[in-house]
Each structure stands twice: as C-alpha cells, then as structure tokens.
Amino acid sequence: MDVVKSILENEPREKDLRKSTVVNKEVEVETDVGSLLAFDYNTLDLKALRSETEHYLKNVTRDNVQILINKIWELPTERVDEAIVAKLPKPQFILPRSRQVPKPKPLTKWQKFAKEKGITSKKKNKSKLKWDDQLQKWIPLFGYKRNKAMEQKEWLVEVNDENKVMEDSFANAKAAKQERQSKNELQRLHNIAKARNIKIPRIGLPTNDHFPNSQQLSQAITVARTSTASVGKFQNRLPKEKDAKGIAKQVPGMKRKAEPIPANVQEEKKRNKDLADNILKSNTKILREDFAVPKVKSGKPQMKKGKKGVKSRGAKKPKGGKGKRDMRLKVGGRKRR
Fold first, then answer.
1. Which of 32-36, 126-130, 150-154, 309-313 has the lowest mean pLDDT?
2. For the chain, what percentages of helix, strand and coil (3-state, to nearest 5) are there?
3. Pairwise pLDDT comparison (52 vs 12), residue with the higher score
4. Which range has the top average pLDDT, 242-251, 268-277, 302-311?
5. What is the mean pLDDT of residues 284-312?
6. Dihedral pair phi/psi, residue 79, rounded to 5°
7. CA-to-CA separations, 49 to 25, 29, 63, 240, in angstroms, rounded
8. C-alpha count within 13 angstroms, C-beta hemisphere, residue 162
9. N or C of the chain: less Cβ packing under 10 Å?
10. How far does the chain reach from its first CA to its final CA, in angstroms?
11. Which runs of consecutive H residues, i.e. helices, occur in 45-87?
C-alpha cells in the first residue's frame, strides 16, 4: 500500500513537468518561419535571472522554441519517405553568410548527353551483388572485393591462336586494365578542365612542362625582361605584370625588400649569429685559391748587372728637366759644345 500511495503522490508532480504547447507572452513574439527565427521583446526577470540563471534561460528558450514550432505546424505539410515535411515560405530577414553560395556542379559529358536523350540511371534499384555459377557464391559487380572475385574466377585463360601461345595473357590483361584506368583518369581531368574553362591540348596528357604554375610563369617573365642591356629599365611591361617574388638575389637591379630593424639586442645577436653560421656551414670558399699572393723575402735587395757595370735594382736615370738644380754651382753664360 505504501508503494501505491507514493506513486499516486508523485503522479501529479510528473504531470506538472509536461508543459502545454500554448505559450502566453505579454508582448507577442515575432517569428520568421522561413529563416526559423524568433524575436522575443519581453523584459527579463532580473531577480530570477540572477538567482537561477540556467533554469530561467532554459524556460525562456523552451517557450520561444515552442512558439516557433507551433508556427511551423500551421504551414502546409506533405509526407516524404515516411517523414512529414513542412514547406517553408520565403524568409523575411536576409542573414549574412560566412561563405559564398555554392554553385551547382557542372555536368560531365556523359551526364549532359544522358539528360538530352532522356537516359535515366537504374543504379538505385539495381543490386550490387550477382550470383556466379562458376564460383557458386554472390560476387559484387563493382567496388569492394570485386578484384579478388575476378582473380578466383579467371585463374585460367584459354589461348586459341598459335601466335599468342608464347605471350603472357595475364600480363596483357593487366596492361589492358591499366590502360582503361588511365583513359578514365584522362576523361576525369578533361571534365575538370571543362568545368573550369581551361584550354588543354587535344592529344596527350598535360604536364607541368607545358602548363607551369603562375609562380614559374612570373619568374620566367621577370628574368626575360631583366635580361636586356638596360636590365629591363626601358622594357615595356605586360598588363598587370608584377615582379616575381623570391628572385631578387638572382636578378640584378631588382629592389630587395629591406629587412626590419631588430627590436632588441637579443634579436640582433641572433641575426648576426645566424649569418655567421650560414657562412661557416656553406661550401663556398671565402678565399680564392687561384689568386697568387706575392712572396716577400727579407734581406738586402739583390744587385742587377747591366751593360755598364752593376746597378742597384731600384735605381732609375732621372729624366731631363726633372732633376734637382743647385743654383750656387751654376756657371753663368751659355754652355758651348
């Protein structure tokens, strides 16, 4: 009996926890069903907010969500795959997006052809498994475990032509499969290029040699322009052409970006230390080995013998008009011969 009494006493409390779908507000809540927005302009109970913050906010949020759901149930509905779906009207408020609206994916060549001819795919109703009489089990038509099933099935290859007896049939089949995979990959790249409006050659697969990236093109243009005698000073630039980045050291005449001034002494020491480490670790030779250093011999200078006896190595005959004259020893008059 005590258990029954406790259940009966708790029953009305449990019923009180189930709130009604009807919500009464002093100021009517403004809703935008198209954007699933609700604007509550009612004043907050500051005393309840400070004393029981979490409980009060939960109750206010629950009431506003209930009002929004009541508005949604007033809209026309339909059943889609065992689910009731409501048709939302156009939104009244335009909400800002953090990203651009995604563009529809362009159709491939086959999808475009199938749409024009009215060809529909039956993959949804088609089973992925097929019964194989040879293996006596269900094998997948594509995807996972398909290759292993085909290897078990095609372990023996019949050769009818005498010329093909010496050939490796398994290697030929593997090469044919790789060729089909390459063809499918090439077609996939064609579809991507067509969607991005990229012109590609009709024959062969485009490589990095034929289509370098924008950085390689800008570097080639900058080097070609600065290869003139004036280092590109009088060379006309292409429209919207800018100097390539990171090649100022290789190209003469280009303005280099000045390094920022060190903020403190520790940063300046670190920069100088890194510079010294780079010089010491590099393989470049600071001193040239092919430069001959003159050898200096100590002692008296050697005397060189000439036609008229021995002369000092550094003695030179004074030229006329440049010798010293002693006016006291000068004899007056003209010298006669």
1. 309-313
2. 35, 10, 55
3. 52
4. 268-277
5. 55
6. -100, 125
7. 17, 20, 16, 60
8. 0
9. C
10. 168
11. 46-51, 53-73
How many angstroms separate the CA atoms of 92 and 34, rounded?
7
Q: Which has the closest alpha carbon to 23: 73, 56, 70?
A: 70
CB neighbour list of residue 122: distance below 8 Å, 6 or more residues apart = none
For residue range 55-107, what is the model confidence (pLDDT) as tens digits? 999 999 999 999 998 888 888 888 887 788 888 888 888 778 788 888 888 88
Q: Is 52 helix (H, G, I), strand (E, B) or coil?
A: coil
Report DSSP letters for 288-326, one per residue.
-TTSPPPP---SSPPPEEETTEEE-TT--PPPTT-S---
Among residues 93, 99, 27, the alpha carbon closest in space to that of 64 is found at 27
Taking 60 as the threshold, does the pLDDT of residue 229 lie above it?
yes
**Distance in angstroms (rounded) separating the CA atoms of residues 231 and 253:** 7
Q: How far apart are CA 159 and CA 66, in angstroms?
A: 75
Instruction: Please state, in angstroms and rounded to a whole number, the distance separating the CA atoms of residues 313 and 303.
Output: 6
Angle at 242 between CA 239 and CA 247, to 5 degrees: 145
Greatest distance between any 2 Cα atoms in the chain: 168
Is-above-0.85 flag for pTM? no
pLDDT at residue 188 above 80?
yes
Q: Using CA atoms of 32, 36, 39, 40 in order, give the dihedral in degrees to the nearest 10.
A: 120
For 277-316, give one letter per residue: b (16+ CB within 10 A) or e.
eeeeeeeeeeeeeeeeeeeeeeeeeeeeeeeeeeeeeeee
Query: What local confidence, expressed as pLDDT, does residue 116 receive?
Result: 92
How many residues belong to the chain? 337
Looking at the DSSP bridge assignments, the partners of residue 31 are 38
Cα dihedral 100→101→104→105 (10° resolution): 40
CA distances from 292 to 51, 166, 217 (A): 93, 71, 44
**Structure confidence by residue, pLDDT tens digits, 260-283:** 888 888 999 998 998 888 888 866
Question: How do beta strands 37-39 and 30-32 pair?
Answer: antiparallel
